[in-house]
Amino acid sequence: MDPRIRSLYRNLLFMGKEYPVSSGGYPKFRRQLKQAFQKSIVESEEDLQNALSRGDYITKELEALYFLTRYREMKRRYGEDS
Amino acid sequence: MSTKLRILVPVKRVIDFAIKPRINKTQTGVETKGVKFSINPFCDIALEESIRIREADKDKVENIHAVSIGPTKAQDVLRTALAKGADNSTLVDVGDEEVEPLSVAKLLQKVVEKDNSNLVILGKQAIDDDANQTGQMLAGLLNWPQATNASKVEIDGDNVTVTREIDGGADTLRAKLPLIITTDLRLNEPRYASLPNIMKAKKKPLEKLKASDLGIELVKRIETLKVVEPPVRNAGIKVETVDELVSKLKELKAI
User: Which of A8, B19, B113, B184 has its CA 20 to 30 A from that of B62?
Assistant: First the structure.
């Protein structure tokens, strides 16, 4: 296996530990992540690049999701209208 | 040549914001067993600000030191802090007992003196006890100026300009170093500590101390008598007709 794929999987799995419990939490995240990796067929260098950039995209989306859930919760608790 | 910044960032390990706290059986506090902990969101903002100050001008910052006062497990939040960009870290292991803000401030005062820090950036409050006292007390003990609830920080040589969030507007302060800043929610957007960065940070120094090593005796001045859940709100009722609504409102003397 390409080391880039392995490290992407490992990093995403690590991020999944913080996946919101209300959306299924880590078990659901792990299941979906595994499925997504199994489904993406990589036969050429181009496929690999596409898959990796999709992985990067998901990483950034997750970071944004975590930031926003926390920010919104803090704003709800300590914001001006609370 | 202006003084180089030696930034101290105290961080607290608290129950994760996404967890609904449960009161323990003896009603003396909240249940901490089997609960997820993470870095206090406001401390995370403080840490981010110190890293951004360095990223804006690399030569200005000599050192970013993260310190946590808490149980042995508070190491985890220090590792996260190191992964995000702190240079070194100190854990003052005080066991599982909650330490009062005054004791925390006294311990931090010693760390500041030992470290020769000239800027302390703290979260305005922790989301567990919501005390909002540590920064202010530390400023008092050190006799330093303080800028609380910061929403913007600008550093120009020895002068620091801080915009504060106040009711219905903003308040801009200027002070010379050394200075205490406490952070509000809108100061910045904290970054994420990725797995590779956490692995790399394992090589960074983590010093472990006891409160007695700093010459501070932890005294409790406040006793918690009882912790209870907030009262449950009663469910509302549905009214069938307008007349019923009007009569109900009249009953309550609302109209």
Answer: B184
Chain B interface includes A76 (CB < 8 A): no
Structural domain count, chain A = 1
CB-closest option in A10, A63, A70 to B17 = A70
User: Are the CB atoms for B12 and B43 separated by under 8 Å?
Assistant: yes
B27 part of a folded domain: yes
Q: For residue A61, what are the domain limits?
A: 3-78
CB contact under 8 A, B18 and A14: no
A82 CB-near residues (< 8 Å, 6+ apart): A76
Global pTM value: 0.89
- Domain range for B22 is 5-229
Q: What is the pLDDT of residues B37-50, one digit of tens each?
A: 999 999 999 999 99
Mean per-residue pLDDT, B52-81:
95
| C-alpha–C-alpha distance, residues A68 and A74, integer Å | 10
